[in-house]
Amino acid sequence: MTIFAVLIISCLGFSCMAFAKPKHWKAIPFLSRLRHPGKRVQELMQYSGAILLILAVYTCQLNWGWALGLCFYVGVLSIALFFVSLLISYFENTIKN
Amino acid sequence: MIWLHTWAGLVFCWLLYFMFVTGTLGYLDSELDSWMKPELSAAEEVSLETDLNAAITYLQAHAADAERWFISPANHRDNPQLRVSWRYPRDSEKNNGRELINRGTGEELHHRETAGGQTLYRMHYRLHYLPSGWGFRLVGIFTLAMFIALLTGVVAHRKLFKDFFSFRPQKGKAAWLDMHNLSSIASLPFQLMITYSGLIFAISTWMPFVGVAAYDFDVKSLRADLNEMRGRSSIKAAGENADLVGMDILSQNIEASINDDALVRFIEIKNPNDRNAKIFVNTHLSGPVQEQNKLQFDGRSGKLESSKEQSGALQTRNVFINLHEGLFAGPALRLLYILSGLLGTLMVATGAIYYAQKRKRPAQALSKQQMLVDIVNGGTIIGLPISICVFMMSNRLLAIDLDQRADWEVHSMFLAWLASFVLAAYWVKDTMWKKLSLVLSITLFSVPIVNFFSTNRGLGQSSWQNDTLFVATDIVMLSMAAISLLLWGILSKKEQRQQSPIRSTNAHSAVA
Amino acid sequence: MNRVSGYIRSYNGQVLLRIIAAFLIGYLASNSIGVVLAKSLHRFAGISQPEAALYASLSAFLIYSVIILWAFSVRSQKKLWQGLTLLTLTLSGVAFLL
Asked: How much is the ipTM here?
């Protein structure tokens, strides 16, 4: 079960980092109607994304210890990054068409 | 940097793709083994003592004079059945052997002769049809090329690390590059790990000079030191007969000296029935960093003799090797391994396709060279999965008593691959990808069907009996068939869309 | 003779030269670096001989790859050949002396 928690946390982390950029902000279905927040919030999102990723590694460490936890972390991170990027590009494309 | 990346990548793309696909399937080697022996189902886990007793009885009856015995109890995905093997000294005329043991009767389990998942897994590091050693050497070179392609890729595309979410699908060529970048960045840590640890396997083949020269070319003492470091001290047989320790005592001693959650992976008995008998116990790994996992027992008294601390260098090496093999991975981590391997496969495949697409001009007809690249691309990227399906089906369809049946399974795999190259060449002019993915879909779909009609473990019955392995295989095959069917649908739609504008431009040029 | 020197001056010839330098001379260079590393780890860092040899062997491929990368990033062909041969010769000398 922990693996799903780690997956969700790292997906959220990557989304935060992505949406900190105005270019990707426009891709989100509902939020795109709002104006992109200012620099402050952008930075805040960037950092919270990083913090979420650190939280994910901490969860892994708690559950599996460093050696095994890092294996899980790296694996989950790969899947999360791939998934989030595909999702964002999917939304960006549907908006353009 | 960029051109080195393109070339180092492309020249080795097709073989790397082969290594990635077979290597990723290697994480399922034992599962595939079991699938290819449908007569057998996983043995129930019983006590170590029962397993050892059955194994020793069998070995005493069939190979009492062997130099080493190996016993793997049935307690793990790696050994669904109790397995024994035995080895004679190199100069002996007797044949080494290995058997699966039925604990009830104490006799060997009978199953069809099959190449199994192990053969497929071995292909990723020693290829096939090559004289022994050459495949391994070649793979070492490819692995180095892969490592360099990775490093140069990181340097060439370093801008991407600032924003890795940029992905532009449906923009033709750029989409392939984006997919290549995305899959490689997403799985970069895995790729670096798997290639560098792959290189570590190749040290003795390609970098032996470092160690040898550090010993001032004294190979003998180097070998002796390394063997001692690995805890492989040479134990000579005394030549006097002596009884082996009782398995009840031995199993008690083993269980007392390993951790509670540790499982015995295999037991090696050197010089059985000799005064100098020694018993080595190897436990399954619980993580990439190997804890003490090799114990030595006396063969006559069954007492624990030594458990030497491992040296730091050997441990470093073993961490790499363990990470590469992933033997410690449970189901969840194994899935992550497979997904990362698939991302690597995707990286290689999209890289190869992008290379071919980049050199195409829409107005020009394909040159011979471009056509060749296209054929090899299609024949490899889609042809290899097709041939693996054929490999699996041949296990079911070849006559059970065929001579060298295991070899013929592999032959039919490579024949199918050849056939898909021929198909690719036949269709290369226009609709290769579309038609090949339809063929792939059909072959994937026929695996569960063939399984259904040739065994009594088809999808219906296996799901009724909670036969997880067979249900999972069928479901994976069916869903992959659905995905490639979807690919076929997308490609044919795209073709229809493209056809109308192309026709109009053709008409224009005709008018002009 | 003219043909050979013409080929070497061409783009393909330059690439070939670079590949030879990177993969062949680089192989020799990385081996000599590895040997020096192994011997000095044993001599000066007090690591036992087999361990030092194993550590050096483990890093040998990394050294080799870095040399190959360097060989393809250096601008001048002359500097590359000079650097690599000098490195190999000095380090093999050092390895011999150690």
From this structure: 0.94
